[in-house]
Amino acid sequence: MADQVIDSSVLNVHDLKRLVQARFSPEPAAGPSLSVMSFGYRHGVPPQADLVLDVRFLPNPYFVPELKGLTGKNPKVAAYVLEREETQQFLDKVVDLCRFLFPRYQKEGKAYLTVALGCTGGKHRSVAIAAELTKRLQEEIPRIQLWDRDIEKE
């Protein structure tokens, strides 16, 4: 049997969600989370992505013999991807976009924002870019998580 009544007749869905979370959550709502995901287009676009960004415009470490067998988590591959001016410009723009969107998603009551970064196989470029994006945003967005979806796939 209910022991609390909420008059929702004057609340929109987002205000109602905030009120219910505030009253019934064991701890105050921690706010939305940002998921940064790397993936390979070869394995399909992640259906849960809110934003999908293609990094296949960057040179591919796969075609560098000493980097081919490594992943974007390796410092040599990361340096190869990140040292380029166009990579830094791209990252600056994506960071700005996330800074713009994240508070607006929060205001609308969304629990998460998922940014998916894709390259051909999901092992090199997207992994390095996703890690760097996470690093750049983790100070201001405390609930950020990194997921390399296809890093182990062939």
UniProtKB/TrEMBL annotation:
This protein's record includes keyword Transferase: no
The UniProt record lists the keyword Nucleotide-binding: yes
Keywords: ATP-binding, Nucleotide-binding
InterPro entries: RapZ-like, RapZ_C
Pfam families reported for this sequence: PapZ_C
GO MF annotation, one: ATP binding
Domain RapZ C-terminal: start-end pairs: 33-152
Superkingdom per UniProt: Bacteria
Signal peptide per UniProt: none
Protein name: ATP-binding protein
Organism for this UniProt entry: Stigmatella aurantiaca (strain DW4/3-1)
